Amino acid sequence: MSEDTALQRVKFYQTGTHTVGNRLMDEDKRSVQSSIDRSNAITSGHRACQGCGEALGARFALDAAMRSCDGNMVAVNATGCLEVFTTPYPETSWQIPWVHSLFGNAPAVATGVAAAMRRKGRAQTKVIAQGGDGGTTDIGFGCLSGMFERNDDVLYICYDNQAYMNTGVQRSSATPPTARTATTPAVGEAPGNVFGTGKNLPLIAMAHNIPYVATATVADLHDLETKVTRAMNMSGSRYIHVLVTCPLGWGSATNHTILLARLAVESGLFPLFEAEDGAVVRTQKIRKKVPVEDYLKLQKRFAHLFKKDREDVDRIAAIQKMADANIDRFNLLGERSAP
Amino acid sequence: MLKQIEGSAAVAQAVALCRPEVVCAYPITPQTHIVEGVGELVKSGELENCEYINVESEFAALSVAIGASAAGARAYTATASQGLLFMAEAVYNASGLGLPIVMTLGNRAIGAPINIWNDHTDAMSMKDAGWIQLFAETNQEAADLHIQAFRLAEELSCPVMVCMDGFILTHAYERVDIPTQEEVDAFLPGYEPVQVLDPADPYSIGAMVGPEAFTEVRYLAHRKQMQALDLIPQIGTIFKDVFGRESGGLLHSYRTEGADTIFVAMGSVNGTIKEVVDAEREAGKSVGSVSICSFRPFPLEELKSALKGAKRVVVVEKSLAPGLGGVLASNVRMALREVPLPVQTVIAGLGGRAITMKGISEVLHAAENGSLSDVTFLGLEQAVIDREIARSAEMRHAGPTAEGILKAIQNRPAAERSKAS
C-alpha cells in the first residue's frame, strides 16, 4: 500500500475485545478496521447522523473492497444520505475516485465507468456502485436490472434503511409492513405501511442469474467484509444488500444501531444468505431465535403496534409469520453448514 | 470520399472516424439507423477499441455515457424526441458535471398525440440544459458537425448535441464526402479529460453544492457557452484547413446583401428557403436568409450584424412555445433588442408537415404587404380548428383529447358530417 494512493493510516476509534475492530482476535480473523494499515475509503469528519448504520456499512464495505484490490477502484454513488453527508462542497470525505450523477442512474453510470476502464486498458480497476433502498429498489430499479441483465462488471451495494431517509422518512418499496413513515402515517384502520407490498431485491437480483448476490447487516461487520471481499474477487454483476439501521427514520436509540441489525437477523426478518448464479449457496444460521416483538419494540416506527390499551396482536403475528417463513425458506435454524 | 449515402449512415461513419471508446445504444425513431450503423462498424471490427453498450432506456444510455466520460473515455450516444425527454435529468447532469459527451439528436415532435415525424420541439425542450446545440442544414454538415463536436466538447469540457432533422436528413440519401481516418486524426486529438476517475489521483465528481456556490457554478456554465461563441468559428476555420470545405460555424448568411426581408431558420428547411430566395431574387425581390447553426450558444452579435439593413425579419421555426409563440423568434428578438426591426414568426412543419416553396413564398408576400401576423401557423386548417372550438364549447370543460375529438366527429350524424366538410 503506497502513500500516494487513497490508502492511508488512520487512528483507531474502537477499544475493547470483540467490538467491531476485533483487535484481540487472531490476525487472520481480524477485520479490516483492526489493522493500523487499513485502507480508508471515507475519512472522518463527514456529516452523518449519530449512530448512522449507512455510514458504518459503507465504510466497512468500501474499506474491505479497497483492501482486496489495493485501492484500485472507483465508486459510483446514487443520490441519497451517503452522497449528501460525504460531499458538501467544498469538502469531500472520499479518499477514492468517486462520482455521483443522479438518484436513479448509479448502475448505468457504473456500467459506463467499467466500459471505459476496459477500453483504457485499466480493466483491473474495480467498479463499485452504491445507493440506498430508494435509489436501488425504486427509482434506479430499471437501470439496475439492465446492469444485471448485461452482467456488467460492477459490484452494486445497496444500503437498505427501509425508507427515503434523506428526504424525511417517506415509504420506499423496501419499507416493511406496518412501519410508520411520513407517507404511511400511523393512523386509520391499518396504521403504517400496508401489508403485501414491497420488493425483495436480493431475490430479484438472483432471478437475473448474476454471479453473486448476498445479504449482510451492520451487526456483523466481519461477515460484511467477507462478502464484499468475495464479491470483489469475482467478475460480472454482483449485488450485496446491506441492512443499515437509521436511528432518525426508525426512531431508535443511537446506541441500538448494531443491536437492531442483529435482532433483524436473529428474528428471521432479515435472512443472511449468499447466492451464486441464481442459487443460494450459503446461509447464516440464527444463533438464538428471538420473537419479532424484541426487534419491533425498540423502534418508534412500530410503536403503534404496541399501544397500552390495544396491542395489535394480529399484525404482530403476521410479521412473525413473515419471519418464520424466511426461517423455513432459508433453513435458518437447521444444521450449520461448513463456512 | 464521395458517397451516395443515407444521412444516418453518414453520421455513423463520421462518428466512427472520431474513434469513440464507449457508444451507448437505445432505439428510437428516427435515430435508430445511426446506432445500428455504429453497431455494425463495431461488430465488424472496422471501429476498433470501442465498447458498444446496449442499454434498457435513454436515461441509461446517457447515464452510461456520463460514467464512461467521467472515467476518461470518449463517449457517444444518439436519441430523439421522447427519448431526449426521458433522459432529461441526465442531460442537465452531463453538462453540470462538465463531461464532453457528443450526442446526435434526430429531431422529432413530442407527443401527445404521438408523432414520429420531424420538428424541433425536442431540441427546444433542452435548450437551456447547458449543452452546445448545433443544427445541421444538410447531411454533409451533419457528418462534419460531429467531427467538430468532439473537438469542441473536449476543448471546453462541455457536452455537444448535434441536431439533424428526423427523416428529412436522417433517412435521406444524399451525396456526402466522408473524410478519411487520416484527416480526422489530424483534426481531432485524443480525449484528455480535465477531471477523471483515477485511483492514482482520486477526485470526487458530482458533490453537493449549496447556495454559497451554486450561482458561481451556473455562471461558469454560462461563461463556457460564451467561450464557445469564439471557439466554434475557430474550429470551423481549422476544419476548413484540414478538410477543404466550410461546415458549421455560428450561422450561414445567404444572399442577405441589400435584402429587405431576411428569413431566419434552423436545419434542413433552409434548403427550401434558399430555393425560394433564389426564385424571388430572380423575380426582383430583395430577400435573403440566415441559417442558425449554433442555437446554443446563441450568436446574438453575429445575427445582429447578419440582419443589418433588413426591413423585416421572418423566422421560420419548427417549434412552438404555447402561450408565447416562437422559441427561435424570441431568441432572434433578443439579438435585435436595440434595433427597431419587426420580427415575425412562422410556426411551420410541426410533426412533419411539409414546408413547401409555395408556402414560404406566400409568407414572404404577406410579410411584404404587411399582412403577416406576429405568430403565423403555416398551413393551419382553420376549418378543423373552428369545428373543434365549436364542439368543445358545447362540452363540459375538461381537457380535450385526440381520441375524444375523433370520437365526437365520428358520432355526429352522417348528414351533419357531410355538411361540415
UniProtKB/TrEMBL annotation, chain A:
Keyword terms of this UniProt record: Oxidoreductase
Which superkingdom heads the taxonomic lineage of this protein's source? Bacteria
* Spans traversing the lipid bilayer: none
Pfam families xrefs: TPP_enzyme_C
Stretches assigned to the Thiamine pyrophosphate enzyme TPP-binding domain: 79-242
Show the InterPro entries listed in the entry.
PorB-like, THDP-binding, TPP_enzyme_TPP-bd
Listed name of the protein: Thiamine pyrophosphate-dependent enzyme
From what organism does this protein derive? Roseibium porphyridii
> What is this organism's lineage?
Bacteria, Pseudomonadati, Pseudomonadota, Alphaproteobacteria, Hyphomicrobiales
UniProtKB/TrEMBL annotation, chain B:
Q: Name one Pfam family in it.
A: PFOR_II
Q: Which UniProt keywords apply?
A: Oxidoreductase, Pyruvate
Q: Where are the transmembrane segments?
A: none
What range(s) does the Pyruvate flavodoxin/ferredoxin oxidoreductase pyrimidine binding domain occupy? 14-228
What Gene3D superfamilies does the annotation carry? Answer: 3.40.50.920, 3.40.50.970
Pyruvate:ferredoxin oxidoreductase core domain boundaries:
259-359
Name the domain of life this protein comes from: Bacteria
Name the record gives this protein: Pyruvate ferredoxin oxidoreductase
